[in-house]
Each structure stands twice: as C-alpha cells, then as structure tokens.
Amino acid sequence: MKNIFTSFLLLASFATFAQSDVYLQFNHLWNDAPFQLDQELITNGGQSVKVDRLEFYLSQFSIQHDGGQITTVEDTWLLVRPADNESFYLGNYDITNVEAITFSCGVEEAFNHLDPATYPMGHPLAPQNPSMHWGWASGYRFIAFEGTAGAAFSQIWEIHALGDAHYIEQSISTGAEDISGDLHIGLDGNYANLLGSLNVSNGMIEHSETGQTINAVFNNMQNAVFSASDGTVGITAENQTLRSKVFPNPAQDRLQVQSEFKIEAVKVFNAQGVLVLQQEMLQSQNVGLDLDGFSPGFYSLCIFGEHTQEKLTFIVK
Q1: Each residue of 212-268: pLDDT tens digit?
Q2: What is the DSSP letter of 150?
Q3: Where are the domains of the chain?
Q4: Which of 89, 118, 166, 314 could form a disulfide with 218 if both were Cys (CB 3.0 to 4.6 A apart)?
Q5: What are the Cα distances from residue 21, in Å, to 61, 120, 176, 184?
Q6: What CATH fold (topology level) applies to the domain 242-316?
Q7: Closest Cα partner for 293 from 263, 261, 316?
C-alpha cells in the first residue's frame, strides 16, 4: 500500500510540474495580405512602395499564464526577418494556458553597447550581413526598414531606428495552441502600420535615434504592429468569435475546414506568403483540402464567405 501511495504522489507531482516547449510564431502581414519583399504594396497613406529589407530585434520576453503567473524568458534576443517567417523557440516551461506575452523592440541597454564579435556565429547579436550593429555609442539598429517608392520606384527610402530611449515594453493579450504537446504563441505583425502615414514617395534616408520619422516608427512598432493571431487559441474576444475551424492540426495529407457560414472560397499561403492553393465556388460549410505535395511547416488559411472573411493558421507535419 505504501508503494502504491508513493507512486501516486510521484504521478501527481509529475502532472503538476509538466513542462512544455514554447514557441513564438509570427504571421507576417501587409494589411490583410501575407507580407512579401520586392512586391508593390500600398501604404496607409495611399503610396505605392516596395520593401527590400525589414529586420528588427525583440528581447526581454515574459509570458503571463495560468491565472496571472509570470515566467521570464532569460537571455533571449530574436532577430526577426519577416521574409524568412521563422518559428522561434522560447524555452521549456511549466505553462498550461498562455494569457499574454510581453517584450520590447530592440536590445536592452546592458547589451546594446557590447562588441558583437564576442558572440558566436549564428547568435542574433553576432555580426550580421547586412549589419544590424550601428556602432559602440549607439549600439544595434533596433529596426532596419528599407525600400523604394515614387515614379517607377526610383526613390530610395531607408529607416534605421535605434537608441536606448526607445526601448519600451509592450504586452499583447493572446493564447497558445497546443500542438502535439508544444505550445505555439501566435502574433500577427502588420508592417503597413509600421510605416503608417509616413510619406516616402520622394525618398528618405533616416538613420538616427531622434527625429519625427524615428519617433513615429517606434510609436507604430509599440502600438500598431502586433496583435494576437486569429488562429491562436486564447482568451481574447476576437479569438472567441471565430466561426471557422480546421482539423486535424497538425495535418498530413488532408485538412478539413468547417464553418458556421457558407464557404465560398479558400486560399492557402505558405510561410513565405506564396499562394499555394486556391478553391472557389465551394458553397459549403464543410470543405476538404488535399495537402498532397505540401512541405512540412506553417500555413495561413483565408476563408471567404458572403460579407465574411476569416484567417487561421495550421501546420503540415
């Protein structure tokens, strides 16, 4: 009897302190469409632009979970390149239900002015090509945003935003999807909001810590770019009102789409934002998608109905 009781306590202890691998996955967008480099894009101010570089640092992460508990993600700096659409591993933690994620754009002051050469190759703070380090005094480029605009896209614009004064924390209410025992936190990044209403049609070169353009870009990054992804299972009202679902997730050969409204069309985009599947004139609440030939990875699914559009994410394994 004693051995049985001891085994029960061990099992209960294991269940209480079960660990999960936690990942952060971005859904990179330009307004409602997947973000792509070197494509004509329309800004919120109505300008036509092309983006040929977008990189930024995020750091000092913490996760709110399970009734307000806070878990700090130690020594983690992410160099996010939206064109690559990476999934980032945050660590293994005792977390069941994610409620919010907190982070700052850039590199915190204690590390911002150190020598990049001291980091091993492949580390986010190691030397990059093109460079993300501005110099000893100013530290890293928190954001590098470049492209062309104007007639025939002949005008170059470059915005390199840096400076310790702009290192400000932000928190996003979101949840996480449990995928095969791993927790995937999803964030939308809408980079049309990063440029906002800034006029770059005549070209612009702004590499600095101060000034109206830099202040606007940082304000946009901190307040208007990130939000919870629709496909993330969470506590936000937006996620609770989704009327469509997909299963199984992760999928292998076939994905089933089920909706409360009549589905008229679906579009599937891969992690690079390329349209890989489109079906129209469906007129059904249940649609099966053949995934034969799909490479493993993350995909975005846009579902269209009459006066309705929803976006979810799924994984092909």
Answers
A1: 999 999 999 999 999 998 654 333 333 335 688 888 888 889 999 999 999 998 988
A2: S
A3: 17-228, 242-316
A4: 166
A5: 15, 24, 11, 9
A6: Immunoglobulin-like (2.60.40)
A7: 316
